[in-house]
Amino acid sequence: MADALPPRAEVVIDLDRVRHNVALLAARAPGIDAMAVVKADAYGHGAVPVARAALSAGATWLGSCSLGEALALRSAGITAPILSWLDVAGADLGAAVDAGVDLGVSSVDQLRGLFGARVHLKIDTGLSRNGCPPELWPELVRAALDSDNEVYAIWSHLACADEPGRESVDRQAKRFAAAYEVAVAAGARPRRHLANSAATLNRPDLHFDMVRFGIAMYGLNPLPQPEDLRPVMTFRSSVALTKRIPAGESVSYGQTWTAGRDTNLALVPVGYGDGVPRSLSDRMDVWLAGKRRPIRGRVCMDQIVVDCGDDPVFPGAEVILFGSGERGEPTAREWADTTGTIDYEIVTGMCRPRVVRRYLGADS
């Protein structure tokens, strides 16, 4: 019965834009493998449909964070190579072998109880998160080569590739080269992958045998210079109710905004329960009836109020909370800049029970 009701809020995912972005990124690294990272339900876009679109556009690998994410892709019938790299301590990773999922390994402990897997040994080159410390790297390489597992690749992750000119990128590249030499000297013949979205676009010297792109595939540019990346997600709702208030009346909790003149208000049934940050209260616009219009008062759990001035706006009118920006509507980057975060967090935050996903594009 609930499925028959129109959505209060929805994110529209354009799979043709995924394909455009993947083709652009793969073309920047011709002749090598390209991993489309679909962790966290494809950054809130839907892992299975995005994975299929990415593979159809030139991606050759998929990246997931957890083994559970990887197994969900396999259950959907996706057979492409998948790398999974972070699970809780003590997790039984044996299912990876049966499902043909590659595993990222950062310590000797993670090798224990692992038999017949294809592993990618991760060296910490300066991010200081996951990855093997350099002083323990020779021990990990030896243990992996002595185990009943295949050492397929070594890899690492860049901390500041989205800030061109940062010395840390070259420092990490040197540490990665040193780790590769240790692995080769020990008898391994591993492939290498280091480049993320930003390095795929601006550091061809770090492409090696595979690039891994995440945020750029979703059309969100990690670099300060423009790229022909097309935002994939549009967040939309509709007007539920309209009213006119006189000058002097206030809006929403705390009455933080008071009308300086008579004005038309539009009530939109989305709020922080649907992914609209409360910190955008009195600080955001929406696209409604052909123009940007300001939110007045605090963002509530279930609703926001839009100031339409003297323009007539009617229930049912489409409201774009963020989109590509091509019409002048707000973007996920604008939300991120206003709230002091990154656009990754904005789009990933759209994984909400009340927010419906709808797909556009071929095979949607």
Automatic annotation (TrEMBL):
Protein's job: Catalyzes the interconversion of L-alanine and D-alanine. May also act on other amino acids.
Statement: the UniProt record of this protein carries the keyword Isomerase: yes
Family: Belongs to the alanine racemase family.
Coiled coil: none
Cellular component GO terms, alphabetical: cytosol
Reaction(s) the record says it catalyses: L-alanine = D-alanine
Classification via PANTHER family: ALANINE RACEMASE (PTHR30511), ALANINE RACEMASE, CATABOLIC-RELATED (PTHR30511:SF0)
Matching PROSITE patterns: ALANINE_RACEMASE
Cofactors, names only: pyridoxal 5'-phosphate
Protein source organism: Actinokineospora iranica
Amino-acid positions noted as binding substrate in the UniProt annotation, renumbered to this chain: 129, 301
Name assigned to this protein: Alanine racemase
Database matches in SMART domains: Ala_racemase_C (SM01005)
Any one Gene Ontology BP term: D-alanine biosynthetic process
Enzyme Commission code: 5.1.1.1
Active site (UniProt): 39 (proton acceptor), 253 (proton acceptor)
Class in the EC hierarchy, top level: isomerase
Modification type N6-(pyridoxal phosphate)lysine: residues: 39
